[in-house]
Amino acid sequence: MLAAYVAHAAPAGRLTIAGAFQAGDELRRVQRIAYRTQQLALAHPNFGADAQARWENDPRLQALREVIERLLVCYEWSEAFVALQLVVKPLFDELVCGQLAALSLRRGDDILGRMFGSLREDQLWHRRWSSALVAQLLASEPDNRPAIEAMIERWQPRMFGALDGLCALIGAEDVDAEAVRAEQQSLLERCGLTRPSGAALQDSAPLEAAP
Predict the structure, then answer these.
(1) How much is the pLDDT for 206?
(2) Among 83, 122, 177, 208, which residue is least crowded by beta carbons within 10 Å?
(3) Domain at 49, CATH number
(4) pLDDT tens digits, residue range 156-207?
């Protein structure tokens, strides 16, 4: 839903196309996970039967739930783009399709590990088109830099809290949360952005494009 909104509300046709393809990739991820869940449920009755209750009540998932619900009602396109593409997705994708994929292979679940590994290829091009757009925004209008960095600081502390909860759910000893954070910071640096302090949560101005 978040990727579809970024595509739908994009201010240019090329961005709409990139966002629409990304939304399709995200639907494929949902589909693949649903298939794998059903396979496991056939082998292990009641597997996943309490998924909704856990999503609504498990304390380790509430920070992620809050981030997603807040972002779903973020109707200013530039902030939705920055929050999703530079904060939420890089951290979530690296944990699930990087760390969890490797853990699955170590634990002998070759199907899940390879599935997440394949999906990671989609997520890498999502980062490439997003970073290319950010580079263009920074080059075309210098005032975009503080606006983007303020948006990152607005969302990053919340997503770091969500990441901590997910790592606790998976098993903190089985995943490397610092490596996940480092990968996201590397993305920001490739975009030419400074490392956010995580302190600012104030409202930020929309991005502007040069004529």
Answers:
(1) 47
(2) 208
(3) 1.10.620.20
(4) 999 999 999 999 999 999 999 999 999 999 999 999 897 555 444 344 444 5
Q: Is 178 a member of any domain? A: yes
Number of domain units in the chain: 1
Q: Is residue 171 part of a domain?
A: yes
The domain of 93 spans: 2-190
The answer to whether position 209 is within a domain reads no
In a domain, 205, yes or no: no
pLDDT digits (tens, 9 = 90+) for 27-40: 999 999 999 999 99
Residue 67, judged by CB atoms within 10 A of its CB (0-12, 13-18, 19+), counts as: buried
Cα(148)–Cα(131) distance, rounded to whole angstroms? 12
